[in-house]
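Running log. JK asked me to keep both predictions on one page so they can be read side by side. First protein, sequence followed by its tokens:
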Amino acid sequence: MKDLIEPFLYPHNVFFWGLIIAALRYRKWGLWLLVVWFYVFGNGWVANQVRHWYNAEIASTTFPASFNGSFMLPGCGGDEQLLPDCAKARLTQLAQLVNQTTHDAPLIHITTLFCQPYLNYLKPLLNREARLDCFHGGATTYHEFYTLNSRLDHQVPLWFVTSDYHAYRVHQLARQYGFTAKVYAAPSSTFKPVNCGATCFLTVNLSNFDLFAKLTAEISSYYVYQLTYEPYRDWETDRKSTRLNSSHLKLSRMPSSA
């Protein structure tokens, strides 16, 4: 009984049902449109369908140990001393995948302005031999892909490791540049399906609004880039002329550990 009644007492559901009552009372189209919007983007069943699509088509949560290719980790900020939590999460995921592989000395590419904190954090997590290639690919994901396009072999399979909310952009750019790639992103609480019980169709959940907000930001970012990509092409020309890429190259080989 508690699980049945409690969701209706949450403030967002009190507001939702108050909105329905107001729409029934005043019969205004604006109120009904607000009810529909609030319900569609907050409903657990609808959001779960989006989550299932995203995890199946965009960001994989499974990894084959037989994978015989290279790994690619887009950076997540930081400076010469500090490593942000998002970078630590990506590096931890990356190490878990690399440790599962069966082929010898997989190659790991990392794009970031400050390589050393990333390498210092990753190396203790690896329990096998690996080749590390860390370099500055640019200020944004779009700059990084311009760099990757000329730097990496498109025939070698790639496994990108990134955050779940960032996976859409990476997935689309990998396809655009013709990489043989998949994207791995362990889902956060926002991207994990919510429990959809008896009250699922009668209530809304705040995590669903968070889901759609993040997806809207990612999808909008990518398509705005598609409409305004010339500055990125200009940056690529400047980068080649100044050899910015080579000034941040770190290539090391991790020894195998017992």
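And the second, directly underneath as requested:
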Amino acid sequence: MYYRLNLKKDRSRRVPLWERLDLKRPTKLRCFSCRLRVQSSWRICPQCGTCLNNNQPKYLHCIWINACWVDTDRQTELMLLEILEDVFAKVFSAFRSINVFLTSEPPDSQQWGERFTHIGLIIDKEPVDYLGVASFCKGGVTDRAIVRLDQIINTSERANLSSSQLSNLIANTIAHEVAHTLGLDHSELPADVMNDGLDHRIHSLMPPSFHAEQITQMNYAIHQHQVAFLSSLPAEKSPKQK
């Protein structure tokens, strides 16, 4: 503030004080994602984990969330289709600060080729002791995961959950498995979406979300994955080399 006021006397020019005052405030920087006030030296937003350096190229990774059940009754199918619309909205919101392209439609082969992660939402009669399972490489990107909707529905019925709570539980399970495919490991915090063994008493009460460190780790894994892919491509020959 002292330097902006410029109160030092200028006897040579005899400029009046009111003409020497500089009351223009510097621009207040904000995160373009969550609008938190940030500093120019920050690289990552501490609240949402968004990369603040726009000079770095932004690499996206495609994730296909595929509802691919077959043997189910009409009533269950209609119930799931209604709930999944809300589920997808919650999952997409949880990944808004992460460099992914989420889709419920088959990825465009020309744009993505085989470079996408397939998340299958399935219903099966075979009993299992998990809600979902994913391929996992700590700090790396993998290509597949499965979410057992039948097990989530059974849990919901035993706990007498409402449709909104069931939606939260499905959304948390999908987000949990997607995060595993983006290199995120389990958390010991009971309310964390990455807690090992999602508790329906907790994760049915709130939609999924990630803290800044988790967002940074996933974005870094995506960046490294895309850089490795681009470096594996043959270099384009210049006209002289052709």
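Observation for JK regarding the second prediction: Residues 237-242 have pLDDT under 50 and may be disordered.
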